[in-house]
Design brief:
The chain has helices at about 25-30, 90-105, 125-135, 150-155, 170-175, 195-205, 220-230; strands at about 5, 15-20, 40-45, 50-60, 65-70, 80-85, 105-110, 145, 150, 160-165, 185-190, 210. About 30% of the residues are buried. It has 7 helices and 12 strands. Helix 2 packs parallel to helix 3 (about 125-135) and helix 2 (about 90-105) packs parallel to helix 7. Helices cover about 30% and strands about 25% of the residues. It is of the alpha/beta class and about 230 residues long.
Length: about 230
């Protein structure tokens, strides 16, 4: 039977017990998954490793997990991809974080662009979604979720190679071989697309643009597809 997998904040070492007092986790283990003493689980804390152990205790205020196995898991890809997504509707932004985390995106930057419908997001909710997607997909690192930032500042602050996803740009099949930098960022516009002023800014900063073909994709679909294009071999 496949073991349940959970992110915990505590230090984890093989051969040692871990004491967990997180009320949300305790409720999940005892009430949702119906785990009890003797049951096994997989845990990770974002340091690149995962561990396996069995519960000595699962009670209302604490659980004790005895760690008896360590698994060194390599990242599923060697590329570091960060998504710079213009702020869109809450549910759609949450979908981007969930699915792109599963694919292997390393960080998400909510961007305030000229056509952004909103100017803020619930970052804590997004971090929770990213945590759960990491648990489900087997990731050993949690992606970073940054606070919203204006478009131009985001471009200036990024220290990798940036690309812009734009419907009117060159097809990605001609751009794919250019995704070779160790750290890549993709700028994705809102539902209404980039403005002419923003496109001029991309040209001024010499940021390459690419498209995903002739279909007009929703912003959340474009983010998921673009992530897969770059990360999935």
């Amino acid at each position: 039977m496949r073991l349940h997998r959970f992110y915990i904040k505590e230090n984890i070492e093989k051969g040692k017990d871990v004491r967990i007092e997180d009320s949300e986790l305790l409720h999940q283990w005892s009430k949702v998954f119906r785990l009890s003493a003797g049951d096994r689980a997989i845990v990770f804390n974002g340091n690149g490793k995962e561990f396996e152990g069995y519960f000595k205790v699962i009670a209302r205020k604490e659980a004790v997990l005895a760690i008896d196995k360590e698994n060194q898991r390599e990242p599923t890809n060697i590329k570091h991809l960060e998504i710079f997504q213009s702020i869109i509707k809450k549910d759609n932004f949450e979908l981007i974080v969930e699915k792109c985390t599963e694919i292997g995106v390393s960080a998400f930057h909510p961007i305030i662009s000229e056509r952004s419908e909103k100017k803020d997001l619930n970052i804590e909710i997004l971090r929770k979604i990213a945590k759960e997607a990491s648990e489900q997909s087997g990731k050993v690192y949690l992606p970073e979720i940054f606070e919203p930032i204006k478009l131009e500042k985001a471009m200036d602050d990024f220290n990798g190679e940036l690309f812009v996803l734009d419907f009117d740009a060159e097809n990605f099949s001609k751009t794919f071989e250019k995704f070779s930098a160790p750290k890549i960022g993709i700028l994705i516009g809102p539902e209404g697309g980039w403005t002419d002023k923003e496109r001029e800014l991309f040209k001024l900063k010499n940021i390459k643009s690419f498209s995903l073909g002739s279909q007009v994709l929703r912003a959340e679909t474009a983010a998921i597809v673009a992530s897969a294009v770059v990360l999935i071999k």
